[in-house]
What we know:
Number of helices: 5
Distance between the termini: 24 Å
Largest sheet: 2 strands, parallel
Structural class: mainly alpha
Strand content: under 5%
Strand order of the largest sheet: 1-2
Order of helices and strands: HEHEHHH
Helix content: over 70%
Amino acid sequence: MSSAFVLENAVFSSFAFYATASLVKMMIMAPLTSRQRHNKRAYQNPEDVVASKLDPSEVKVNEQDQDVQRVKRNHLNDLENIIPFVLVGMFYIAIMPNLDVARWHFRIFFASRILHTIAYQKGKQPARGIMYLIGAVTTTSMAVQVLRALKQFW
């Protein structure tokens, strides 16, 4: 029996692409938060103000800037959704799902996270909620398939 976790397995390769793209998208949110802090001169710690090399009278510690908080909340939402997708996805690959079905799960999840971020940063509801729900349903669908495949071990 060959391993499901090899690049020759098209399901694994597809997952590896979309999972990595999702993780990179999530990782980009940290520098975006920093950029927003710098642009808004809304630093979180006193040492950040000093490190900014700006005139201290022009910069202050501000933990509650709404634009900075929006990017941080978006990043947190990614952490809460992309990590479960990656973990469930690894189990999903192990059950050897149909390639087309699996690819659509991966594509839909990734697209939903990109569109969720756009909607989040623009403050667009209900689009943001719909995109969140699409991603959550996609991950849940994979999880249910894994659990059904493993029901003999209950």
